[in-house]
């Protein structure tokens, strides 16, 4: 069994091997034989020519014939194949023809089956005969009469591939330009039932090429059997020349350069679907007259014809540029179906940019169908914009039956009566007679020029329906909802029109909630209210929250102004926290909770609460009455008010009321405090219009009123307040404070008279500060005052009258101005102000009166005593009159204090409010009794007048005549001295008077007549000074203020036989006055001088000098030698010491009385030497004064008979001595003086001299101790010359 299987497998293996080997051997034999036979093909060229001529019927020339094997297929190559000419046409020459034969199919079917037929280098000329026949010129010889084209097609279908290359092609077609192609390539590939044909042509005379491809399914033998897919690509210039010549198009292509590609499918010989893509850099449309250039044109279009009879043309993409701009609509499609004689159609479009399309249409230069011209004009005016996201139209023939559309962002400009819209989105569906729409806006912007000068914008949505027929039409909505940042609301409306309603009628009902009050005017149709009412509504609502609003309108959409009754128009608002502006220049009310009704042209409102400035207002009503004329429109506002008085001030000053009130009344400003009561405002809306009216009826608590021009402030004022813009202000009773004092009074206005009356007591300092009157500085205390203030009203000027008894006021001023506080002196001040002019009149008891004109410059006239006021000068003050008593020092201080202190930090022109020369113009006073620095003058006349930049004061009386020069900026204690020049001064012998007597009759020391701190800085020059008839000559000095007093430099003068030259310092402290003289004192009659000083005449001489530094506790003209302190250096020339028997003889002080003892010792008689006193050659010495204690350390007295040296002390008050006196007597010479007594005496002297000799000369110095009373001093010899 095993062997049998092995044998069977071996047998099968051998059979299979032979089965494979035999075909391989046969194939190898076939290849070897065929290759050998191909080498013999060139030898059969002529035989082939003869065979073809026999088969075709015309001769054929073949220049070269070759054969080769192409794999298993034989391949024949013919070169230079020439076909004969026909009817004078040139012969057809094929440069190279290659044929690859499929051997077995050809032998089996005995028909040529080619693997490939390749033709290279041929000239083809496509010709269309006038009878419509199409043929290739040069191939006429190949046509067979009576031949069946189907056989030709079958033959072509059997060949695997047919290829024509390097062919030269020309086209001759009636109506088309001739075409000469430099290159033609044709290929046909057959694969079973799939047949692919490709043709490519390149023109040689222009940029032009054609690439065509066709894929055929099956083996169609006629057009109805054709099922194929094709592709055509045409690219080049002047493509419009290839369009049919006999075309009857409304528009034609004048130029077309670019590329056209088409894809299509043919079923049953008809084009079932296709696609065209056009790319044209340049193209031009024309109607024969106008041209429309196109650039960068790109078009994609689809065509489909269904088996159900429906056809469709779609443009999927279209872009380009025209003179009207870019073109880029979305895809559109048109479908149609023919049903009998009728054709139904359907149009669909997507993403259509309306603005681009309408812009193209608006500038379209060609004629449009009837009716579209008007549409184009409207499009130009309104410029619609937006996108039709989808649009569907359906109809039959030229009739539209249904319409559906979905749109987004639609917009069009407003023009005349047609509103504009923007941001409209939604959809609609319907027919030409009725339909429904849904409108959305995110946001929707509406422009209605006849109603608003601005667009309205809101998020909007809601349904809409319409209907129209031959008689009427209507449009109505469902619930329309709108919302934006300003408010949200709902509305319903219906508009009816038609033949019976030539003017459409509108019915509108709308509700608004959550509104922004500041935007209310944005939604009021102000363009329809071109009158003051519209102007008011446009600015009235400036803030707040609209809780709810309702609109109602019913009536014609257009109505004549005098037919307002034909419509109903109402708007009702309920708002809170509203900001309401009454008028543009008036303050706005805030935080208003109001209910506003607009009924036609009348506006009313009720406000539960609100705020005007910082004032709470309640129960407010607002009414804009309907009037016949627009310029009569006004607004009436009234309600309760409770708020700060400053708001009332703002109402008067920050509103147009400021132009209605007098300027003087506006000077009064309300500051602190509160006012409550009823407020009424009646204000015109038109300009010019009715006069405004303001009424305030309430009460003020704790008010503060301030007048800056008057510099007056009233505080804590409490009063009922009534103000009427035409009748003025009335405060029947008021209380408050002014100038720091309480007052009571009233403010009443009756007709043109508006009077404020106040009574109270005012601190004088506050009054002085108010009046800015530094010259009132001497006054102090509390002033009882009655004030009458005539307020400016209806042309009346401001007037103030102040009356007072001045009781309680102390006037610290020179007589006659001064007064004590308990003295009553009835006075009155009247202040008148009209415009910028201010006049003041002053009546000061019986003292005097004055009249002043305030301002720049200041002018005034003042009179003391009885008589008429002097004329008012152009500037400055004129002072005249008569006074009973006056003090020069006091008046000098007073006048000096009128001069402002110059501020070194300011320019000189700004040193003070006014210059002294501007303040005082002239002074002329008669003074019955004048105190001139302690001296009383009778019947004096004082004058003062400016001289240059200084002042010159004059004084004249029987006792004195002189002038005072006050420099600019003079202050009594300043650094600029006045100059005092006295030409005549007559004083009594004792000008200062004696002391006063006490109760016991003892004389007491009087107080100094003047304080040194009151002595002004001055330079004094006295030319003729007489004291008690005694001429004192000239005095001069420079008085300069020092701390606590005054210093007199360069003092020169004579007084009581004394000539003084030095410096005097005069001060005053709490302990009293003190004087100090430093300088020299000389006397030509020392005895008289000592006697005038109430001092004993200790020395008699006409040559005495002393250098002193002495001080005493009193004023300078009353020195007390018992109160002197300081030092003195004495230098006296020839003098005489009086008789020692005198009560105050210095000789007694010197102990000269002991000469008697010496006489007794010497038995000599010298009585004739000291009987009348001691003659001296000179006295000098130093003294120190300590009150009544006089101390000398070395007093030297030289005389012919003796020399004295004195040291010790003297008590001037007690007139006691405690001194040591050294007396030196030169006896050797002096004793011979005794010879004058006679010979006996002279002989005795000679004997003594001889006895003692030199010893007598050496023992002439004697020392004494002198003590005790001046009158009887005790002289004790302490050292004698005989001892």
TrEMBL record:
Positions of region (Disordered): 989-1012
Q: Which InterPro entries match?
A: YhdP (IPR011836), YhdP_central (IPR025263)
Domain YhdP central positions? 14-1275
Coiled-coil positions: none
In Swiss-Prot or TrEMBL terms, this protein is called TIGR02099 family protein
Q: What is the lineage of its organism?
A: Bacteria, Pseudomonadati, Pseudomonadota, Gammaproteobacteria, Oceanospirillales
Which domain of life does the UniProt lineage start with?
Answer: Bacteria
